[in-house]
Amino acid sequence: MKKHIQKIIVMVLVIALIASVGVNVYLLIGDDTSSRSYLENPNQIYIMESGILSNNLDYGVGEDIALQYDFDKEEYAQLINQYKINDIAKTGTEFEQVKNLMNEFSRRLYHYSNYDNHIDMNAIALLEYSLDNKKNGINCRSKSQILNEMCLALGIYARKVWIMPYSNYDTECHVVNEIWDTSLNKWIMFDITNNQYWVDDKGMPLSILEIREKGALQEFCTPIIPGESLSDLKKIKEQHMSEFIYIMKNVVYTEYCDTYTTGESEKYYVLMPENIKTDYEYLISEKAVQSSPIKYVKKLH
Q1: Cα dihedral: 265, 266, 267, 268 (round 10)
Q2: How many CB atoms within 10 Å of residue 96?
Q3: Contacts of 116 (CB under 8 A, 6+ apart)
Q4: pTM for the predicted model, two decimal places
């Protein structure tokens, strides 16, 4: 009788163990997501982010100021010769040249979010510190400075842009680049930290403001890594959903240096949505940000 009871207890324990394993497997791979947080679903996060962008789509009043681009720094010659950026950029449109530069140096500059910006904010100093050195990672701000100076050294209009989140409590912003492509007659965003540019459903490269508008209207766009085929953009978007969501969070408003050169200028302009109250003194207009720098802006000499 005692052995019989023991067998029953063992069987009950085995059945309970099997049931427990089955439930856990079902929760991991099953289709029922009712008990899971909505934040585990990227589409739900995007719905939230696109709603924020939609409610802040229109910009407020700002100055029609001319951002400046300095093409004549002595350091550019060293940058070209020491890092062979002409050979890396090759020929073609500004978009094609910058894509080559980004793809080369993005893979050789390691990322460290908590980097304290202790190296001088100029391309040569940052490259000497971090290039091909896994121990000396740098952040998106510094990587964007490197790419920006490389573009200016090649005579390409380029600007480093802070893309900013909506929440006052969110300190996780991002810094990217935009370059002016004369053949497309438009600004194009490059994200050297993620080695990505963005395209629409037809494969057209996009600016920051175009990405922002498409996010607000829930129109198709996606980040893409140089070399990826454009034949299945929906699949590429799924593969890069993490970066997609991250950028969408951070394009509520944007900040610009008043002058692009070696190092950062001390004066910044902000393009701010009209629904967001701000006491910031230097506000730039949407027109100034979108306009061609060749027609609207003068080079520094």
Answers
A1: 80
A2: 15
A3: none
A4: 0.86
Residues of the chain with pLDDT under 50: 21, 23, 25-31, 33, 296-301
Beta-bridge mates of residue 120: none
Q: Annotate the chain with DSSP letters as a single string.
A: -HHHHHHHHHHHHHHHHHHHHHHHHHHHHSS--TTS-GGG-HHHHHHHHHHHHHHT-SB---B----EEE---THHHHHHHHHTHHHHH-SS-HHHHHHHHHHHHHTTS-B-TT----S-SSHHHHHHHHTT-TTS-B-HHHHHHHHHHHHHHTT--EEEEEEE-S-TT----EEEEEEEETTTTEEEEEETTTTEEEEETT--B--HHHHHHHHHHT--EEEE-TT--SS-HHHHHHHTHHHHHHHHHT-SEEEEESEESSSB-S-EEEE-BTTS----S-BB-HHHHHS-HHHH-PEE-
Is residue 165 classed exposed, middle or buried when 0-12, 13-18 and 19+ CB atoms within 10 A define those classes? buried
Query: Backbone phi, then psi, for 273, in 5-degree steps?
Result: -60, 150
CA separation for the pair 244, 247 (Å, rounded): 5
For tokens 């454009």, name the residue: 230
Structure tokens belonging to residue 290: 């979108």
Instruction: Give the pLDDT of residue 298.
Output: 45
Query: Measuring CA to CA, which residue among 18, 299, 3, 5 is closest to residue 156?
Result: 299
